[in-house]
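Per your request, structure below.
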């Protein structure tokens, strides 16, 4: 079984790039001290508040506009997906796990497929590994773009809702080209990917990777000089590195404090060791650093995608193990053995050797891990996902308590939670 990533010593900060904060003086945060003593009172925010990002309920104890106590209450969209996976053949579990996080479904698919591949001890072709990396990084960009769109809306910048969705729509067009679907693509398969990329896909991806950094420059030109935005971000929701490590928080929230923990560097998987990229980190650990880290990560993702296209290997895009992957369609008309394998896989599914495995990947929100237990049958005995949104939600308490309720909205936005991943 793979070691937990927190068990692995990793403090190679020289491999990260610390983001510079702009020259504007730190704006004073006013209003957290009350002029007059007021009574404490309790309110509910959510579970359907437009600023809570999904079906999240917050129990707040307020003193005036200051948040004195904050308790997240979850469970409103509990779906029982993990339990449902135990009734499905291994390949039928993929559509279930990708629906846990509706913004970064490629990461859920990838973690699950890699876990099953590890149990099967099956080798994934190099071309499939590169195609996975390309789709992972495009999905990271799409997720961060939607975060830009919604979080800037939360702090009053309505234009970014249209701008962020505009660029994200371009990525969804690319997903539709490669998989036929814009959302919940089911593109990853145990042993590789479902299909090779179509003609024209590479040119479209390169066009996007050239266009996106220029669009991000426009985003930052509007935001980084905007005094209102800076007042909502700088010095707000500050949490130190040790507190976040104690809570198990990962992803951009942790990297904003200066800690460069990233699964792609700390415990490389798939083909990430083949690419040159930096891990952007902040210095203070406030909302402004979280914003800067995610913007820089999108640029790094473009670099990775371009490198993957430059070095995309030729060859198969899925394993040739006929007990794991369906045989090519043309073989069914000429090979009785291929026909038998096809029939057995479709009707019974693949049989996975007994064992248990945990495989983590770096999702847009941090460490996403898949734990699979096999009893040797054609269905998993247990599937459990370590979703970063569930763990990161704990950080909202230190981020929000002691601040204004208006700043709490910005903190929720910078947390970037997905309630489907939290409740499952």
């Amino acid at each position: 079984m793979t070691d937990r990533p927190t068990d692995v010593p990793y403090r190679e900060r020289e491999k990260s790039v610390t983001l510079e904060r702009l020259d504007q003086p730190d704006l004073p945060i006013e209003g957290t001290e009350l002029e007059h003593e007021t009574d404490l009172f309790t309110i509910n925010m959510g579970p359907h508040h437009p600023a809570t990002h999904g079906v999240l309920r917050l129990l707040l104890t307020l003193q005036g506009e200051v948040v004195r106590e904050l308790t997240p209450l979850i469970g409103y969209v509990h779906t029982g997906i993990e339990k449902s996976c135990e009734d499905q053949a291994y390949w039928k579990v993929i559509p279930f796990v990708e629906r846990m996080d509706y913004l970064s479904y490629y990461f859920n698919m990838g973690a699950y497929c890699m876990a099953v591949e590890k149990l099967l001890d099956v080798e994934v072709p190099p071309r499939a590994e590169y195609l996975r990396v390309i789709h992972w990084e495009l999905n990271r960009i799409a997720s961060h773009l939607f975060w830009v769109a919604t979080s800037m809306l939360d702090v009053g910048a309505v234009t970014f809702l249209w701008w962020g969705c505009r660029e994200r729509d371009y990525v969804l067009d690319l997903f539709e080209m490669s998989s036929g679907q814009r959302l919940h693509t089911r593109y990853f398969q145990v042993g590789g990917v479902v299909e090779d990329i179509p003609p024209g896909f590479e040119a479209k991806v390169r066009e996007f990777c050239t266009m996106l950094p220029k669009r991000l420059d426009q985003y930052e030109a509007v935001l980084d000089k905007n005094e209102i935005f800076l007042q909502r971000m700088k010095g707000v929701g500050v949490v130190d590195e040790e507190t976040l490590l104690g809570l198990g928080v990962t992803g951009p929230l942790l990297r904003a404090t200066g800690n460069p923990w990233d699964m792609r560097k700390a415990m490389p998987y798939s083909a990430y060791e083949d690419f040159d990229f930096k891990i952007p980190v902040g210095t203070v650990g406030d909302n402004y650093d979280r914003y800067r880290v995610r913007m820089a990560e999108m640029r790094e993702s473009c670099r990775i995608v371009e490198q993957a296209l430059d070095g995309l290997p030729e060859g198969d895009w899925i394993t040739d193990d006929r007990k794991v992957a369906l045989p090519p369609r043309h073989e069914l008309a000429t090979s009785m053995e291929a026909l038998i394998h096809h029939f057995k896989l479709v009707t019974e599914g693949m049989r996975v050797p007994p064992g248990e495995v945990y495989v983590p990947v770096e999702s847009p929100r941090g460490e996403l891990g898949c734990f699979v237990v096999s009893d040797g049958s054609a269905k998993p005995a247990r599937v459990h996902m370590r979703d970063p949104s569930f763990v990161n939600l704990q950080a909202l308490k230190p981020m929000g308590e002691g601040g204004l309720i208006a700043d709490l909205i910005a903190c929720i936005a910078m947390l970037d939670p997905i309630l489907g991943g939290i409740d499952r």
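Residues 126-154 form the longest helix (29 residues).

Regards,
D.
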